[in-house]
Amino acid sequence: MKGKFKKNFKLKKEKLFKTDICVIGDYVDFEVIDEHAGVIHSIDKRENYISRKALKIKGSSYRGERLEQIVAANIDNLFVVSSVARPLFNNKTIDRFLVIGESSYIRTFIIINKTDLDDENLIDEWAEIYKSIGYKVIKSSIITGTGMQELKKLFHGKKNLLWGQSGVGKSSILNKIYAELDLNIGEISNYTEKGKHTTVTSIMIETELGTFIIDTPGVREIAPFGIRKEDLGHYFIEFPDHSKNCRFNTCIHSHEPGCAVIDAVENGKISAERYDSYLRILETIEQDILF
Ligand code: GDP
Ligand code: ZN
C-alpha cells in the first residue's frame, strides 16, 4: 500500500494506527509491479463491513478503550457457525455474532454443526428459539452430511463469511462441500497445545464461479464494536416489536418502569435466554474509539 494511506490514519496524540486500512473483500485499484507484487492506489467505498473490538495490544489502548478491527468488507451473507459439542454450544456467543451481523445490515444465518454428537436432539430447542424470531438455522454434520447441500445452495453466487469460535468446524464444512479445497483442520485432541495447524489469517476463495467464501481464523472472544447502549435493542431482532411500546423512548430495557421488553420476557414472548444475553452485552459496552 502507498504510504499515504498510513499517514491518513495516524492519530497524532495517541500514536495509534488504524490496523485495517485494506481488508478482505475490498475492491481496489492496483498497479502490477511484477509477477509477485503490486501497489494499491485506492480502495473503493465499502458497501458494508463486519468488525469487532480489537484484542488489546500493548500500547494501543488506554482507559479500557479499544480499537475497531475490520474482519471483512462487501459481504452478502454472514454465517455464524456454532457446534453442538466440542466446543459446547454457547448461545451467548452466537448472540454476540448476531448483534454484529445485524448492526452491519448483513443477512445473517446460523449454522449448528456436529449434530452427529447430539444423540438426544437437545439442540432442537435452541434451533426453534432462533427460527421463531426469524433466523434461518442450518443444522449440519460433516459426518452424516446433513445440511451440506442446503449450505452449498445458500453460498451459491454470493460472498459469504463464515465466522465462529475455533473448532466448531468452519474449515471442515468447506472441505466437505468443495472437494477440491484443502483447508487445514484443527485437531481437537490437541486443542490446548500450541502450534496446531488452523486458519491463522482470513482467506477468500472463489469456490464456484461467482461464489466466494471467506474463512476466518477461529476467535476465542468476540465483542461488537461501536454500538451504543441505547441502540443495542435494535439488533436483537425480536425486540423492536415490543420496545415500541416502552413507556420511555430512551428505554434500554434493563430496569425502567413500563418497559415492554421486560413484560414480554415475563410473558414468555421473548426468550429469557436471549434477554439474558442482551443484558450481558449491555453491561460490557464501553466507550469505543471512533475514527
Ligand atoms: P474451525 O476451527 O471452525 O475451522 O474447525 P475445524 O474445521 O478445524 O474442525 C475442528 C475439529 O472438529 C476437527 O477435529 C474436525 O474433524 C471436527 N469436526 C468438524 N465438523 C464436525 C462434525 O460435523 N462432527 C464431528 N463429530 N466433528 C467435526
Ligand atoms: Zn424497554
Walk me through what this model shows:
With 291 residues, the chain is an alpha/beta fold. The protein has 3 domains: 3-68, no CATH class; 76-215, Rossmann fold (3-Layer(aba) Sandwich), CATH 3.40.50.300; 229-284, Probable gtpase engc, domain 3 (Ribonucleotide Reductase Protein R1, domain 1, Orthogonal Bundle). 25% of the residues lie in helices and 20% in strands. It has 9 helices and 10 strands. The protein is globular, with a radius of gyration of 20 Å. 31% of the residues are buried. Residues 11-17 and 187-198 have low confidence and may be disordered. Bound molecules: guanosine-5'-diphosphate and zinc ion. Zinc ion binds at residues 243, 246, 251, 253, 256, 259-261. Guanosine-5'-diphosphate binds next to helix 5.
List the helices and strands and how they pair.
Layout: H1 3-8, E1 28-34, E2 37-43, E3 49-53, E4 68-73, E5 77-83, H2 91-103, E6 107-113, H3 123-132, E7 137-139, H4 148-155, E8 159-164, H5 170-177, E9 203-208, E10 211-215, H6 229-232, H7 240-243, H8 260-266, H9 272-284
Bound molecules: guanosine-5'-diphosphate and zinc ion (ZN).
